[in-house]
Amino acid sequence: MIYHFAQCVLDTECRTLTRDGALQELSPRVFDILCYLIEHHDRLVKQEELKAWVWQAITISRATLDSCMRTVRACVGDTGHDQRIIKTRRAYGYRFVATLEAPDGTPLEDVLPAATHVGASDAQTPRFPEASRLPTAASAAGSVRLAEDAAEHKWVTVLCCGVVTTSAEGTSLALDALHGQLTRLAQLSKDLIQEYHGYQCPIMGNRLVIMFGIPAAQEDDARRALRVATGLRRLASRPDGRQRAPGALVLRMGIHTGRMVVDRASAEAATMASTAVGHVIGVASTLQERAAPGDILCSKTTGAASMAGQIVCDLHHARALACA
User: Which residues form the Guanylate cyclase domain (predicted)?
Assistant: First the structure.
């Protein structure tokens, strides 16, 4: 879903936010807060509800939530004093109050049908428009059938590689420029990724995602991911083979290893899985966002999978971190 509001564009599929055409860098949890408030803009969202959705079972302080809300406001051009986009009900909750618009500037309320509000007595049985009802189990029995063994668990290493989008002067990279840099990085890295038997996912959002272990897992998947990361940094800094090339890219990378559920049929056919489910990509993305410009951060799981600390210590600037 793409939301337009107050010179901002939020893309929930690509997980990107732009303001006045400039890409804003949001941590995964800050992005989730903004998405949740927008998706529930028709009501006040309680603080406890927001914390339960974003942090789930993790207990956080009021200060942590306040800090995240300040970041959300800064990214969308709002402040706690003005509250033009997000209103605060002190000690209670928040509400997104900016007008959501279609791409042509028409308010979404004039484009989308009104939502059906559920009364207190119907809290467990929400209503949906007639046309969107799902078929009953009996009517759907012959239409869709999923095999019980359609998927399998695999040990996968994911490398997330992002281009630093903020200049030394503090200005954000325009979307067209970011698109060009990511496309150039993908072209530069193609042969290196193939050499180490990685799979580059289609570019989405503001990063490259490279997976090792799908469709076939290898004992040294984590080590190969680390080698690709250092190779990417070298290629990005010298795209034409020269030191300090004018077109050098500054990268930040994160690597995590863990279990994912993938299509069994794809694995058996030695083709890339069309579905890969798990938190590995999210953790690698978080590490990438925490990394300093030019840095590579890998989780302790990845460090252990690449022969404890030996490989990590051999890589300049690569550091093993505990994953939250």
Answer: 157-288
CB 1 within 8 A of CB 12: yes
Q: How far is CA 249 from CA 23, 67, 199, in A?
A: 17, 31, 21
Residues in the chain: 324
pLDDT digits (tens, 9 = 90+) for 221-231: 889 999 999 99
β-pair partners for 256: 158
Between CA 106 and CA 201 the distance in angstroms is 35
The CATH number of 2-112 is which of 3.30.360.10, 1.20.1250.20, 3.40.630.30, 1.10.10.10?
Answer: 1.10.10.10
Cα 5 from Cα 7, distance rounded (Å)? 6
pTM score of the predicted model: 0.50
Whether the link from the prior residue into 239 is cis, omega within 30° of 0, is no
Query: Which residue type sits at 126?
Result: P
Distance between CA 230 and CA 255 in Å, rounded? 12
Pick from 273, 153, 266: which is nearest to 201 by CA? 273
The token pair that represents 260 in the structure block: 């994912």
User: 106-150: per-residue pLDDT in tens?
Assistant: 565 544 433 333 333 333 333 333 333 333 333 333 434 444 456
Residue labelled with tokens 């300090």: 244
Q: Which CATH architecture has domain 151-321?
A: 2-Layer Sandwich (3.30)
pLDDT, greater one: 255 or 173 = 255
